[in-house]
Write a structure and sequence with these properties.
There is one protein chain. By secondary structure, the chain is of the alpha/beta class. Helix content is 45%, strand content 18%. It contains 16 helices and 14 strands. Helix 13 links the parallel strand 12 and strand 13. Helix 1 crosses helix 7, helix 3 crosses helix 6 and helix 4 runs parallel beside helix 5.
């Protein structure tokens, strides 16, 4: 079931030989999204309604009434409510500690520092699709509330009957609540949150994962300078670094769990042990046969499932640093030592008792993570994604005099004499 890639003795950059999600044609996605965004920018609610009817089969009001949220919270299964409350508490604890500190200091009479101001309005996108991602409401709203965001606007796709999964609505309330909620998905939701319509307000930043169209829409509005985004969170992926001490059942279960998300999901084992590959293949047969979403899992594993043979664990880390996984598990005889060498991953899951599914729901760190190799240059969603750092500086006359010569020299070098004059005039005596 897993494609075998043998990199033993080969330390070249393996990036072009490793699997990635086979996304839809990139140019077609880009053009389709550009058309939707242009339509929403010009025609607002009318375009959003048109796209909702076309893509989701829904025709009706966009706004979700607060009473619907209250009803969902009142009707939620007590066990699920307790789980959501525990998850929200754990995620809140982690993100409170992630909040960057303000600081101020003084040097030679000059005072300066950084303070962090919360964003005014944030749009959170909660995917529906194959599975209603109830946990994403926790992962996006909790850090926004920890940061002190002024207004949280939630968008999530409806079914053809306009119904939004009640678990998403209940989770949003438990996470701290969204100020406005809308039944709209896809690129049209990103366009509405970015540009604003008569019904949906424009947001300063949009966060949350989504499919290829959502990810492309986020990228286009960000590149246009319309609003900020968190990161490029597309089709999910996992890599597992393991040696012959790993339990093949654990590895197989984790590969299946990732494949369960999406037929395009990527699950990859990286190991120096041919014996482990054989054992994991055997365990996969049992795990796949027992899973509910067998067709989805098989499509994912047969499409992108991979076992990579390497020389040793250092080589495994080298390969994974190049691949820059969204999720990276380490299951070896020396978990901490191996994990310490990893430099590029959305989140590290260290040890046999730390499956990715724990991080998906309740471990603490955010599950909104960079995909497709973008963990090479970005990290997961954090509290500071909802804050704007504001640098500040306050000089007195002595501190200005100390640096006036620098301003004068650099102003002359750049042929900007008024820059130097702005400093000099403050030091002249009447």
């Amino acid at each position: 079931m897993l494609e075998l890639i043998d990199l033993r003795g080969d330390h070249r950059d393996p990036s072009d030989r490793l699997p990635r999600a086979r996304e839809e044609d990139v140019a077609a996605v880009r053009d389709a999204v550009a058309g939707v965004l242009a339509d929403v920018r010009v025609h607002g609610d009318e375009a959003v309604a048109r796209c909702s009817a076309r893509f989701d089969g829904y025709e009706g009001p966009l706004a979700i009434d607060p009473g619907e949220v209250e009803a969902a919270l009142a009707a939620i299964d007590p066990t699920l409510r307790a789980a959501l409350e525990r998850a929200a508490d754990q995620v809140r604890w982690f993100h409170e500690r992630c909040r960057p500190p303000d600081w101020a200091d003084e040097r030679d009479g000059a005072r300066m520092g950084v303070r962090h101001e919360p964003l005014d309005r944030v749009g959170v996108y909660i995917p529906g699709g194959l599975s209603p991602l109830v946990s994403t409401a926790i992962m996006t709203i909790v850090p926004a509330r920890v940061a002190g965001v002024g207004e949280v606007v939630l968008a999530t796709p409806p079914g053809p009957d306009g119904r939004v999964d009640p678990g998403i609505l209940a989770a949003a309330a438990i996470a701290g609540g969204a100020d406005r909620l809308y039944r709209v998905g896809g690129a049209q939701a990103i366009g509405a949150l970015a540009y604003g319509t008569a019904t949906i307000p424009a947001c300063d930043k949009i966060v949350g994962p989504g499919n290829a169209y959502v990810a492309e829409a986020k990228q286009q509005v960000a590149m246009a300078g319309v609003c900020g985004i968190d990161l490029l969170a597309g089709t999910t992926e996992v890599a597992v670094i393991a040696d012959d001490t790993a339990d093949p059942r654990h590895v197989a279960a984790d590969l299946v769990a990732q494949a369960e998300h999406d037929p395009l999901a990527t699950s990859m084992l990286v190991t120096p042990s041919p014996g482990l590959v054989e054992a994991v293949e055997a365990a996969l047969a049992e795990e796949v046969a027992a899973t509910r979403h067998v067709d989805r899992v098989v499509a994912s594993l047969e499409g992108q499932g991979t076992a990579v043979l390497v020389d040793d664990l250092d080589h495994a880390v080298e390969v994974c640093n190049r691949w820059a996984a969204e999720h990276l598990e380490v299951q070896t005889a020396a978990d901490d030592a191996v994990a310490a060498k990893v430099r590029r991953a959305g989140t590290l899951f260290i040890g046999a008792m730390t499956p990715v599914s724990l991080g998906d729901y309740a471990a603490g760190p955010n599950h909104t993570l960079p995909t497709g190799g973008t963990a090479r240059f970005s990290g997961g969603l954090r509290t500071d994604d909802f804050l704007v750092p504001v640098n500040w500086v306050a000089y007195d006359e002595g501190a200005l005099a100390d640096l006036a010569g620098v301003v004068d020299a650099l102003g002359a070098a750049e042929d900007l004499p008024a820059h130097a004059r702005a400093a000099q005039v403050r030091l002249e005596r009447p």
